[in-house]
From TrEMBL:
GO MF, one example: hydrolase activity
Pfam short name (any one): Abhydrolase_4
Protein name per Swiss-Prot or TrEMBL: Alpha/beta hydrolase
Top-level taxon of the source organism: Bacteria
Keywords, comma-separated and alphabetical: Hydrolase
Domain Peptidase S33 tripeptidyl aminopeptidase-like C-terminal: 243-301
Protein source organism: Roseateles flavus
Length: 303
């Protein structure tokens, strides 16, 4: 693993569009949805936009169709949240240890972070691993990053404070935005941090062949949800509001989210450390023992 002391800001055109289509199966159901959206947007763009937004908010494959490995020795704690429930995983005998929060990404689940949780435990921390709404063993079928912000607030009030937060992909972007808006913690570790929502929207629109009329309606809907708008997820805004130490880990061969997004964010942050890996991709990054130890050690420095 190589450390980049302080990357130069990339050219604005450097980050290629994230491969949003990698989050969607290429089966008959998706082919049918593409065909249906194409027909609908020609005759009823408002209805096409509503259907597209529902799809944008739906993690695929649905959580009940995913294999859910055992979380032992981590034990489940169910928390009420809005009209749903959140599933949190922890070790009850770690009450006296400094608490850290671990967050997976879109279409992921807490079990992906078992290795990182163990590394944090071995470093003397008490890791709490969340299944986001509509993911893993938390309830719901649709969700969005604005709801994730509310979940972070509720979780922190009931189970915090956190000395550090480590998060993957879109979970990393949600964590960074939440901390920038005042969520208390001392350190952040962002693994394969996602592209900002406007880039995700562009990738989604391209994947489903949506036209400008539908795209604009989707953008307006996402802007209305976000505070302070989609600009609040961009490196420039985060750089002005994140003063704490931030570790960014990204693989150079990540085909879902190019490493250029983490490079751009690292360049904007005042106290960023960027580490690039080789050959791990987007999700296998979470399984790498060296990455797990480095993230755990980084969080433990705040304890």
């Amino acid at each position: 693993m190589s450390q980049i002391p302080q990357p130069h800001p990339p050219h604005p055109s450097a980050p290629t569009r994230p491969a949003v289509d990698r989050f969607y199966a290429q089966g008959r159901l998706l082919q049918g949805l593409r065909a249906g959206l194409d027909l609908l947007q020609r005759h009823a763009p408002a209805q096409a936009a509503r259907l597209a937004l529902r799809l944008f908010d739906t993690p695929l494959p649905p959580r009940l169709l995913q294999r859910r490995p055992s979380m032992a020795p981590w034990q489940g704690l169910t928390l009420p949240f809005e009209t749903r429930r959140l599933q949190l995983w922890h070790r009850p005998d770690g009450a006296e240890r400094p608490r850290v929060l671990l967050l997976h990404g879109w279409s992921g689940q807490a079990a992906q972070l078992r290795g990182l949780a163990q590394a944090c435990w071995d470093a003397g921390l008490s890791p709490h691993v969340l299944d986001w709404p509509a993911h893993g063993r938390s309830s719901g079928w649709r969700t969005d990053i604005a709801q994730w912000q509310r979940a972070l607030q509720v979780l922190t009030v009931e189970q915090g404070p956190w000395v550090g937060i480590a998060a993957h992909s879109i979970g990393a972007l949600a964590a960074a935005h939440g901390v920038a808006r005042g969520l208390p913690t001392q350190r952040l570790a962002l693994l394969a941090c996602s592209a900002p929502p406007r880039h995700l929207l562009e990738g989604f629109v391209a994947s489903f062949g949506l036209g400008l009329a539908v795209r604009e309606r989707l953008r307006q809907a996402l802007e209305a949800r976000a505070r302070p708008g989609l600009a609040g997820f961009e490196p420039a805004w985060l750089g002005r509001h994140l003063a704490l130490p931030v570790l960014l880990v990204h693989d150079r061969q990540d085909r879902a989210v190019p490493a250029a997004y983490s490079e751009a964010l690292a360049a904007a942050l005042p106290r960023a450390t960027l580490r690039l890996t080789e050959g791990l991709g987007h999700r296998r990054l979470l399984d790498d023992a060296a990455v797990q130890r480095q993230v755990a050690a980084w969080l433990a420095e705040a304890a």
